[in-house]
Amino acid sequence: MSFINFSSREITCKIVYYGPGLCGKTTNLQYIYNKTDPQLRGKMISLATETERTLFFDFLPIAFGEIRGFKIRFQLYTVPGQIFYDASRKLILKGVDGIVFVADSQIARLEANEESMENLKSNLAEQGYSLEKVPYVIQYNKRDMPNIAPVEELRALLNPKGVPDFEAVASQGIGVFETLKSIAKLVLVEVRRQAG
Amino acid sequence: MTEPQMVMYEEEYRQIQAIVSRLVKEANARVVFVIDKNGQEIAKAGEVDQLDTTSLASLTAGNIAATGGIAKLLREKEFTTQFHEGERANIHIQLVGNRVILVVIFDNKTSLGLVRLRVKKASEELNAVFEELLRKVADPNRESPFAEITDEDIDNLFKD
């Protein structure tokens, strides 16, 4: 649910990075944090376990410039990927404006990707949302790993609708900003559609 | 989407800011702020200069969301109040109209009793303002800064 503030002349939107455990959601946010001008970003918060697995969420606020005198801000969240944190994932999806589904390209994780995509659909449905309405993009991460599935196979499994998708190596920053810009743009187009 | 866009207009912002500023004084608190349930900051007052209110807003909303999740499991409607006591600072978190969150940070210059009393009054006032705001937002003829923007405006934002 975007927030249009006429008083501070700001528009804030919420983007959630979703995907199976260890697919690189937090790594995406860390790269964005490290490469964004400190004046355009806030602090990154990670609520993680002692072994650095996401426990509740990561949070990173960033600014993207102005449109017609309104500052455009995005709040980036990740969900915990591990299966048993489902209750937390549902909470973080509340009020979402756009989703980045981060898939793990490794063959051994194909099933985990599919499960996570199904989990995303059912968690959205519980709140009256659906992937038909919420803008989303897909990132095929870990393209540098040895045993990876071809993009075509991942696409057939995860992207039947043909939404924008990107190959990435988030740990090196490859594909990270392309993914972010793509979802940010889709979200703004949707905000405009709702306003019109 | 099921939820409408949250919109804040100048008039309601001034009313909310007035309530929040008064609450800081009347409760003798250090900081008061109002955020929506998604963690977006709406208004703040008091010693906010040294405070990362963006992070606080996001964490408080996460906290309220988690507590709401616990309530649901216990078949409670909601736990509307939370209080955390520290050595130097205490924080009182109040859900207002199941819509926004009123946060008061205070120290030993005041008491929990006084904070609770003032929060109750401020919550009622805030609730009335947000009711009015929701009515405005639901008006199909309301102005929107976004209805007029072009594809070019959006593209320009992402130029390298």
3D structure, described in words:
The complex is a heterodimer of chains A (196) and B (160). With 196 residues, chain A is an alpha/beta fold. Chain A has a single domain (3-195), classed as 3-Layer(aba) Sandwich (Rossmann fold), CATH 3.40.50.300. In chain A, 33% of the residues lie in helices and 28% in strands. In chain A, strands 1, 2, 3, 4, 5, 6, 7 and 8 form an eight-stranded mixed β-sheet that branches. The radius of gyration of chain A is 16 Å and the shape is globular. Chain B is of the alpha+beta class and 160 residues long. Chain B has one domain (10-140): Dynein light chain 2a, cytoplasmic (Beta-Lactamase, 2-Layer Sandwich). Helix content of chain B is 45%, strand content 21%. Chain B has a five-stranded antiparallel β-sheet with strand order 3-2-6-5-4, sandwiched between helices. In chain B, strand 2 and strand 3 form a beta hairpin. In chain B, helix 1 packs antiparallel against helix 3. Chain B is globular. The model of chain B has no long low-confidence stretch (mean pLDDT 91). Chain A binds chain B through residues 1-8, 11-12, 14, 42-43, 45, 47, 56-57, 59, 61, 64-70, 72, 75, 87-88, 90-92, 94-95, 127-129, 133-134, 181, 184-185, 188-189, 191-192, 194-196, and chain B through 1-10, 13-14, 36-40, 42, 52, 54-55, 58-59, 62, 65-66, 68-69, 144-149, 153-158.
Radius of gyration of chain A: 16 Å
Which percent range describes the beta-strand content of chain B? 15-25%
* Named CATH topology of chain A: Rossmann fold
The tally of domains of chain B stands at 1
Distance between the termini of chain B: 31 Å
The CATH level-2 architecture of chain B is identified as 2-Layer Sandwich
Rg of chain B, alpha carbons: 18 Å
Indicate the percent of residues in helices of chain B. Answer: 40-55%
Helix content of chain A: 25-40%
Question: What class, by secondary structure content of chain A?
Answer: alpha/beta
H-E order of chain B: EHEEHEEEHH
In terms of DSSP E residues, the strand content of chain A is 25-35%
Number of helical regions of chain B = 4
Assembly annotation: heterodimer
Which class of chain A in CATH terms? Alpha Beta
Distance between the termini of chain A: 16 Å
Identify the CATH homologous superfamily of chain B.
Dynein light chain 2a, cytoplasmic
Label the CATH architecture of chain A: 3-Layer(aba) Sandwich
Biggest pleated sheet of chain A: 8 strands, mixed
**Quick one: CATH class of chain B?**
Alpha Beta
Mean pLDDT of chain A: 95
